[in-house]
UniProtKB/TrEMBL annotation:
This is Helix-turn-helix domain-containing protein. Keywords: Transcription, Transcription regulation. It comes from Halalkalicoccus tibetensis. Residues 176-226 form the HTH bat-type domain. Residues 31-160 form the Bacterioopsin transcriptional activator GAF and HTH associated domain. Pfam families: BAT, HTH_10. It comes from the Archaea.
Length: 241
């Protein structure tokens, strides 16, 4: 007899969840029509749409997305989509295009639910008749509110994966305290944005060090992060300052 004591009632494996987890990551699947661009995804069969979460936004929820199809075809379909007020192509490549979308209803479907802070949407990929969403929630109870919302809206909701996630510790990537401070402060000040919201001199002043010292801390911290996260098996530590 198979022991499924580590699985949820729907068969989802939850063995990676433990008491030390700081939050949970849930990967779910919902019908295309329950989220934005439902009719567009159905019309452009096989076309993949992916939200861009790196670009900082103010006000409107999730306005940027990538489309892996001819930009004209997407623009035509989006123009007839009831969830879209306006779609403008920002940049295009041979096989994809980045769009800025103005939603007809900023609180439509899950847009409003996420904007109200019930959970953090990490990824959203749409293709054909469904959306795959990756959510970060603080507890099973918070995930339960998502399921309740789906039930109230008569939305079919399928949990694909559920696993715990610990908040990263500095030592996990061999990043020193000073490197950690430099990296996080630079991120908060917009130093890594294009164009930059803060100069190296401004960052150095905030850290209370010289521009050269600030630059070195960033370089060493970034090197340690890359070697000890992206290049698994080649762990190294560069400097303590």
């Amino acid at each position: 007899m198979t022991d499924d004591s580590n699985a949820d009632h729907d068969g989802t494996d939850t063995r990676s969840i433990d008491a030390g987890s700081d939050c949970l990551i849930a990967e779910v699947r919902v019908p295309a029509e329950s989220f934005v661009l439902g009719s567009t995804l159905v019309e452009l069969s096989g076309v993949a749409v992916e939200f861009e979460f790196i670009v900082p936004t103010e006000g409107a929820p999730m306005p940027f997305l990538w489309v892996d199809t001819d930009s004209t075809a997407f623009a035509t379909a989006a123009a007839d989509d009831p969830t879209v007020e306006n779609a403008r192509c920002i940049t295009r490549f041979d096989d994809s295009a980045l769009y800025r979308i103005e939603w007809a209803e900023p609180d439509y479907g899950f847009l409003g639910w996420f904007r109200d802070g019930h959970a953090t949407l990490l990824e959203a990929d749409g293709v054909e008749d469904e959306w795959h969403l990756k959510l970060r929630v603080e507890s099973r109870e918070e995930l339960g509110t998502f399921q309740t919302y789906c039930e109230e809206q008569d939305v079919r909701f399928e949990l694909l994966r559920l696993y715990g996630l610990r908040k990263p510790k500095m030592g996990q990537f061999n990043v020193s305290e000073k490197q950690f401070e430099a990296l996080t402060t630079a991120q908060e000040m917009g130093y890594f944005e294009i164009p930059r919201d803060a100069s190296l001199d401004e960052l150095a002043a905030e850290l209370g060090v010289s521009p050269r010292a600030a630059s070195e801390r960033l370089r060493r911290g970034q090197t340690n992060l890359i070697h000890n996260s992206l290049m698994i098996g080649r762990a190294t530590a560069l400097g303590l300052d």
